[in-house]
Amino acid sequence: MYEYCPVCKFRFEVELGFYWGAMYISYAFSVVNVVIVGVSLFYLAGDPPLWVYGSVITAVTILLTTFLFRYARVVMLYLFGSVRYDATYNQP
Ligand SMILES: [Zn+2]
To answer: Which UniProt keywords apply (predicted)?
Structure first.
């Protein structure tokens, strides 16, 4: 993650330890992921054995880790960093 935005020079670390709260958002994303994958397995694979649930959910969670990490920070920044996206900021 950049320390400053290369376009508008916004400092991403709003305050010290700001992104610690993103862990809770990431946790919520992971819970949603587990529920979606678990329910999908139940209905699409016909309620497989427990080890299948465990291994598929673990694999999907590992594959989504960088995505969840990144978007948890984005959500944290938008919800608590008082940042609003301005598409016209750098337009001539
Ligand atoms: Zn920027």
So the answer is: Membrane, Transmembrane, Transmembrane helix
CA–centroid distance, 7 to ligand 1, in Å, is 5
pLDDT at 66: 93
pLDDT at 8: 83
What spacing in Å lies between the alpha carbon of 28 and ligand 1's midpoint? 27
| Spans of all domains in the chain | 18-80
CA of 50 to the centre of ligand 1 (A): 46
pLDDT higher than threshold 90 for residue 44? yes
Interhelix angle for 22-44 vs 50-80, to 10°? 140
Quote the pLDDT of residue 55. Answer: 97
